[in-house]
Fold these 4 entries.
Entry 1:
Amino acid sequence: MRSFAIAAMLLVPCAAATAQVYKCKGSSGETVYSQNPCARDSKPHEVRTGRAATPTSGEAANKQSVFKSTDISDAGIAERNCLTSARSRVYGPSDQRIAGYERQVQALNRDAALARNNLAGATYEAGIRNQVAGLQQSITAERVSADSQMASATQQCAETKRKQVEAIEARYTPSAAQTN
């Protein structure tokens, strides 16, 4: 008796899943679906209960296209992350050194403003101006060096992305053996 009850319970969902559906016209001409026949000659409407077991070629191509697009987008994000990392690695220390040079220039300019208006003061001020000029050259050299390092890092990041995109294109491009 117990196994009969279990079997009956298992069949109940199947009965609901195989219920018939009728497509009818409503009083205003709209389409109405019903479990009961609309007219005597009504025939059950066939309802697709699920997707096909295998995707169509169009669905497969669309899926491949989405995956390819996502992978290429990921390669772009990786390049952007590479550039962000390079920027902080190159410009972070460089900006700190430049800030140190600029603080020294400000201090020297304050000292030059206090120089006496005589021969000794003029000599002292000329020495300070030479130090300031040397620091300004150091700032320029630091910026040129950082820009050069960043240009090199940019090329490396772009090359890495290019290789990733080539690999993605190769992975999603059907080979001649698959197309024949």
Entry 2:
Amino acid sequence: MTREGCVRMDAVRGATGLAAVALLLTAIAISGCGPRAPRPAVAPTPPAVVPDSGPVLPRVATLRVGLPSPRRANLLFTCDGPVGPPRIGSATYARDTLDAAGRRWLRVEGTAATQVASVTGDSAGALAPDTLIVRAFEDATDEEIAFERGELDAAVFWPGELSARMRSDARFRDPELALRARGAVVCVATAADTLAPLRADLDALDREAFGGDLLPWRDLEPDPRPEAPARWSVDATLPGARPLERILARVARPGGTRTLKLMYVDQPVAAADAATAAWRTPGVTPLFAVRCPVLVRPAALANVRSIGTRAFAALAPCGEGTGP
């Protein structure tokens, strides 16, 4: 074969090869095996954000609580009635029959109690301890000593009971102040008396007699009436009638021509209708709601606050009072 013929044959073979390659690429494209354009990336769905409700405290196993004995006197009221089993919110307790001292109370577990706590949002009942050790003290000083010794996690006192030594001690001078659901200090004037008592007199009474433990009623319900000085008397049925009279005689501003009588009434103060209650008659002015100082050991403070200090003040025996 000549050189020219070889060139023509190579050209034919090259043309045939190119055609074959073209046919192969076409078949690959039709069958979907060829390279594809990249698909747009789909962003993954972010996980749902759960709101942070803060640290959740587990229910504490045991709390040791000191309370005033029913026979322990205070300035405002007495309680001679029987004291029932302790209760914290919806949580109820039964006496531990194996405890000879009668101080240990075991939480009564049940589906009904759990449902009540969950439905009503009762954090006190939900977080109430499994075991409650309750000690009643005849004397406030003995209760202070027990707390200082570490024998109590929380100690409840009546208004004004904490000693000056405890109130001046940096470890104890800022107790929790727990509002009781019942009990108000009021003054009674004639129905025609439309003036309010002097705020200075009330502040001095709270400071001198109760160590500032009482809650001024004006913090709950402002009194827009003008103030005027007065002469004070105290209901003779109050256990602390005489010392209260002496304090009022010393702190009251001179120049009073009207008489106001200080009394204690055992009535609800936290209810929504307290402002329109039957005891709110003309001439009756609420002055203070009752708060109990509660000493709490630092290790138990978070648990006590999560339960609510009012629940511990409610553990103290009732306070009977006379009506205006």
Entry 3:
Amino acid sequence: MVAKGLLVVALVIGWGAPVCAEPIRIAYSGVSASGTPVWLAKEEGLFAKHGLEADLVAVRSAPIQVSALVSNEVQFVRGSASSMLSAAAQGAKLKIIMSLFAERASYDFLVAPAITKPSDLRGKKIGVQDFSGLLWSLTMLSLREMGLDPQRDNISIQAIGDSTVIAQSLASGIIDGAALDKLQSARLQTLGVKPLLDLSKIALPSSPFMCAETFVQKHPQTIENFIKAMIEASAFMRANKERGIALLQKYLKVDRQLAELGYKFLLDDLTSYTFVTPKGLKTAQDIIAMRDPKIVKFNVEELLDQRVLTKVVKSGYVEDIERRYKLRS
């Protein structure tokens, strides 16, 4: 009878499965292809598999993301390194724990059909999500690369909404330019919008995951479980094309053809894991310094704590999970 009882318990909870999942909240800044691994981890039960009960929340404002992290209203943010760097330089105790994407800006700076050269942007309007996040940083970087200055050249930079709203505004002529990801770029080019600058050769952290420093210190096992779930989500995404395409269609509201293109772009940048580097953060710091020169005094390495990621990588977990998904022999 005892043996039978143990068998029943094993069947109910599963050998090695967590009896009680730990609740966490994950904030993300907007709907884009780079959010796919997080949505996949939720829908495919990968967070639950690693002992986490994840609630995903959209928080588009970088200051609210920071406030939510510091107050422990959310435990993880997938967002902009630039926003977190600005907040950390002002005293917020934050840490970047990992990324899943290659450290480059896979974005285009797009312009309205009537614009043919950088100087045509003088006196025009450019859309961003806010004045500290990734799209703002890429916009400022683009203008610098093209020899333009917003004040000198009378360029109006307007915070109008997330990337979806920005794309719609550019297509309808409400704004004249914007930095958007490669999928949005491909879609808008069918409507006559043109890429004026390819930003993909610039080293910049892409969609890193961040936590409050106190949370990292007090909950290393939760950090480890989260990292393992995200590494598995990346493997799942790379091994299951149809599931990836379906997620892109669902969340980005695009047709099959664009979703297939989006999946291709995603695979160009999606990695097993990525260590965010001081070099990439220094690029972000240089951009922010155009608005806030005092930030150059901040040591960007203080924003990094990737010790748990190092532990997971050294354990052989990545190789094991990728063999399971037949990504390596």
Entry 4:
Amino acid sequence: MNTRLAVLALATAALAACEPNPSVTGPAAALQAARAADVSAAVSDPGAVYTLTNQVGGNAVAVFARGADGRLTAAGTVSTGGTGTGASLGSQSAVTLSDDGRWLFAVNAGSNDVSVFSVSPAGGLALASRTASGGTLPISLTVHGNVLYVLNAGGTGNISGLAVGTSGALTAIAGTTLPLSGSNVGPAQVSFSPDGRRLVVTEKNTNQLDVYAVDANGVASGPTTTASAGGTPFGFSFGHRNELFVSEATGSASSYELDATGGVSLVSGAVLTHQGAPCWAVVTNDGRIGFTGNGAGSVSAFAIAPDGAIGLVDANGGTALIGAGINDIALSHNSRYLYVLQTGGAQAIHAFRVQADGHLTALGPIAGLPNGTRGLAAF
């Protein structure tokens, strides 16, 4: 009983840190050789970064123009038409972009709906629609083609599917509102696999990964569950060939392979970050670098080998130090820039240039966000 209580206490502490108000020689060497050209020296195109103000009195998307050098400039806010919670969502992907960058999707956790925006070539937004999420307390979104799935954390929790029309209107897909593995599971993120044939959900309270099969019409079935290698699985990202990189809030990250049948096989289990509360995770487009955003105020870089094995780029896990609590991370569409949402102390977004070996060069923060800001997406 004492051991169980200790584990529960550790998980609780890790989750609180996520919401602040082995040797790596082999993988790192392979990464350096494979990415000999330093991405920081490449010419980049401009883009945009988005976050949710998540205010009870009215939610909005805060827009930041991204220069070709990765630095951000505030470009105003656009109302979602819904409301936020003003506090923790405990999730990743509360705001997300379509693969082509033409549509932005945002949760309204306070009004239980989802807003869709068309994205102009310059990154500006125009509200296209607002639709019920299929549950309560929507916290995470994922899109593949013209199918959007919402992860709802309220009540017993569920996932729910919506078809995305050519004008940005959303229509509920019959038969796609499905339960999680149980009630009170503490869901954190939902994401399509790269081929769109599977959905994965992380459950913080049960330490499980849920996998749903998705048919050609976008209708999901399942889930099947797999025990997490580390405690409190939270944010995650896919690499190449359905490789899955998962952050674990108790202090580690793990990698898995998702096979053609939806089976999940462990590759590297619970690799310590040596940093507090790794809760958010992204992977570069080439699949060779993963980053965890650590709630205690840092970023850890991982080298990802061709077989999916992971190892820290820096032995102490402190690839970048923010110095205050963070709440999400996102890569630009070309993976040349990493953005980190700081919610402890100042409310700000920090910009970094991604180097060939996974190290980060700070480009500076931009502040001015309200307390309660959550979610991060970049293009």
